[in-house]
Design goal:
Blueprint (H helix, E strand, L loop, with lengths): L4 E5 L6 H7 L2 E3 L2 E4 L2 E4 L6 H7 L8 E3 L3 H13 L4 E6 L7 H15 L4 E6 L4 H16 L4 H11 L4 E5 L4 H5 L17 E7 L2 E8 L2 H16 L3 E8 L3 H12 L3 E9 L2 H7 L4 E7 L6
Parallel strand pairs: 1-2, 1-6, 6-7, 11-12
Antiparallel strand pairs: 3-4, 3-5, 8-9, 8-13, 9-10, 11-13
Amino acid sequence: MSRVAVVTDSCASIPESLLEQLGIHIVAYYIHRGQEVLRDLVTIQRDEFLRWMPGASNLPTTASPGPGDYYQMYQNLLAQGIDQIMSIHMTSRGSGAFQAASVASAMLMEQNPSARVEVLDTQNVSLCQGWIVIEAARSALAGASLGSISAQVRRMIPITHMIQTADTLKYLYLGGRIGMAKRLVGSLLNIRPLIGMKDGLIVALGQAHSRLQAYTEMVDYVQAVVGQGRVKIAYVHAGAQEEAQKLKKMVEDNLNVAESLIAELSPALAVHTGPGTIGLCFYPIEGKLA
């Protein structure tokens, strides 16, 4: 058993096979759909949610786990004999997860002085958060200390990037998560917005007239960031597996991809992006992070 447990939330959207393989511990977000209170990837799954979403008259709302949810997770780990915990979360400028986990960690360490919980804000979302979690979990399995894993996470945060496109920004706009990309909301229906993250906020990265053009611009964006170097990439989507495969081929025909995976967004993220979203979450490999 690893000396360090890695905890994150369901919005990291890490494929279940990797969660199990790497021993990553997940705390579920909440989705409020009318009078229903659903737990992300626990009481609502991706396919069911995406089938329901296009015909919905009202957009569901989401809520991060509360301090009690994280405290329970940390307590469960303590009960298993693990008192070193790395807790990794999406941008604190778009969710209360980081703050809730920080409260829970302070409570736990006050009551259990031998325990140590480090809570980190990735300033990003989706599989950008997910990549950081994956690499932290790999290091934990290899026997790395909590301090070493923390340093690794901090190095990855500024070099992990997202770019994605969607058929519409309606869902982000209605959910209040539009960040600094508001200027794209009024785009014509045949314009596909390209968005990313900067300093923990959603920002506009451009716009395209077709999916093909959007994918080409995504490839160009990754090339501009990584140059001739190697890169790890996650192709993320919401109910668009075939499109993710198309994008994967375009990327891997043009870039030196050391590792890739395809992942579908969790329902709590799909609420804000809408069905049909396609994106990339990637980071260039440095020797110390490979």
